[in-house]
Amino acid sequence: MSPAAPDPEDAGAPHPGSAADATGRSAGEELRLDGDEAMMFDLADAIVGLARLIQVADVQTAGVVALTGTETAVLRWVHRHPGTTSGETARATGLHRSNMSAALRGLVSKGLVLREGDPEDSRLVHLRLTEHAQESSRRIRLHWAEALRDRLPALADEDRAALERTVDLLTSWEGAGPR
């Protein structure tokens, strides 16, 4: 009889028979989240759930070009930081240069990103969105807003203010790169 598949709920638990996991917990010691750890897990879980909700919202019906997840990350960064370089974008998104190059080639070939040489330094290339990308971005924003609006209850003023502060906080982390 083959061993049972691991339970996803046990993903953070040490493997039976192992001396210790990466946190120094010994085998058999239960992994518990409490206080800030539990809140951070709940936040991450909610973000992943919202991301999935948005991801499955059929953006093709919005009339936009299909993108990979990596292309989306690059496009978002270039949208928020016009004139950025590929190196800056790779660092900010946590992409390896080879993945960054592949995503950039895809975005250029789809007519979404322009590469512009720097007039003062011929080694630098700046990235900008095309008009087509800007229009697609507007369509995606509207489409995502509809997907969330259809699923979120009407918000009280204090809840709307709390959500706006949360969005500000979460977007302030963007570009910090991986830890």
What is the secondary structure topology, with strand pairs?
Layout: H1 36-56, H2 69-80, E1 84-85, H3 86-93, H4 97-109, E2 113-117, E3 125-129, H5 131-149, H6 157-173
Antiparallel strand pairs: 1-3, 2-3
Helix pairs in contact: 2-3, 2-4, 3-4
3D structure, described in words:
The protein is mainly α and 179 residues long. The relative contact order is 0.10. The two termini are 42 Å apart. It is globular. It has 6 helices and 3 strands. A 3-stranded antiparallel sheet has the order 1-3-2.
Quickly list its features.
179 residues; mainly alpha; three-stranded antiparallel beta sheet; 6 helices; 3 strands; 50% helix; 7% strand; globular; disordered N terminus
**Strand order of the main beta sheet, please?**
1-3-2
The poorly predicted ranges are 1-18
Report the span from N to C terminus. 42 Å
Number of helices: 6
**Strand content of the residues, in percent?**
5-15%
Structural category: mainly alpha
What is the approximate shape? globular
Q: Give the number of DSSP strands.
A: 3
Rg, Cα atoms, Å: 21 Å
Helix content: 40-55%
Summarize the biggest pleated sheet. 3 strands, antiparallel
Give the helices and strands as they follow along the chain.
HHEHHEEHH
Q: Return the average pLDDT rounded to an integer.
A: 79
